[in-house]
Amino acid sequence: MTKSRNKYLLDLTNSPTIEALWDMHSRKMAEYGFDRLLYGFTYYRTEKSLGDPNDFLMLTNHDPSYTDEFLGNELYKNAPMTRWAMDHEGVASWTMVGDLARQGALTDPEMAVVQFNQKMGVTVGYTISFKAVSVRSKGAIALTARNGMSQSDADEVWAEHGDDIVTMNNVAHLKILTLPFTVAGKPLTPRQREALEWVGDGKTTQDIALLMGLTAATVEKHLRLAREALNVETTAQAVLKAAFQNQMFVLDL
């Protein structure tokens, strides 16, 4: 198992794209019985919110019949394990949800999410809340066990393989944070990216025009389109968001 895990971690760290990583990770977690995953990350959390959903990085292999409701209608905001992940780091068994329900500790909106998950067969699993890299960031992954497994079955798997599973998910999470991604909007074009990179280096519009061999008006156009693609109002915000999404200073392979 150790040799298999180490080979997997090596392949994971060499993943060239988020899509390749997610496919690999989904298949690996299924080997342990967790065949439905939901990963989320934000750089824009506050004390009361995870931020604008348009800025989230969300990865999942759940069926659209589940995600259209859970994500599309923002049920995740009232999910008990989301609340736990917002306030904690580490691992939690979904036994917690049943315990809270029996104690009457869940709100009506939270109970509505529990009932939806019961209807969709998303009741057995574990949540990993990753160590935050800043006060504004938060990442977590929910691992749903395959149909037919009980929470006791999942707990037995975790007792034997939990450390390996956590290690692989931690590495996957850290690798994801290094790879370019886009959320709402469109990917930056090479010219838009280059213009933002020069802004990030402290260059003025006139400087950038000379460096790129363009007119100042054309540079301004590229920066405006970059702001629109990233759904921000200012160029400074565009530089920050592009940096968060690893869209700046990337290699064209």
Mean pLDDT: 90
CATH first level of the largest domain: Alpha Beta
According to CATH, the homologous superfamily of the largest domain is Transcription factor LuxR-like, autoinducer-binding domain
Query: In terms of structural class, how would the helical and strand content be classed?
Result: alpha+beta
Q: Determine the number of helices (DSSP H or I, runs of at least 4 residues).
A: 11
The biggest beta sheet is recorded as:
5 strands, antiparallel
Summed up, the domain count is 2
Beta-strand content estimate:
5-15%
End-to-end Cα distance: 34 Å
Cα gyration radius (Å): 21 Å
Estimate the helix proportion, in percent.
Answer: 40-55%
Element order, helices and strands? HHEEHHEHHEEHHHHH
How many strands in all? 5
- Provide the CATH topology of the largest domain: Beta-Lactamase
Classify the oligomer: single chain
Please explain how this structure is put together.
By secondary structure, the protein is an alpha+beta fold. The chain has two domains: 2-176, Beta-Lactamase (2-Layer Sandwich); 190-244, Arc Repressor Mutant, subunit A (Orthogonal Bundle), CATH 1.10.10.10. It contains eleven helices and five strands. The chain has helices at residues 2-13, 18-31, 64-70, 80-87, 95-102, 108-119, 151-176, 190-200, 205-212, 216-230, 235-244, and strands at residues 36-42, 57-60, 90-93, 125-129, 138-144. The protein has a five-stranded antiparallel β-sheet with strand order 2-1-5-4-3, sandwiched between helices. Helix 8 (190-200) crosses helix 10 (216-230), helix 9 (205-212) packs across helix 10 and helix 10 crosses helix 11 (235-244). The protein starts with a helix and ends in a 9-residue tail after the last helix. The mean pLDDT is 90.
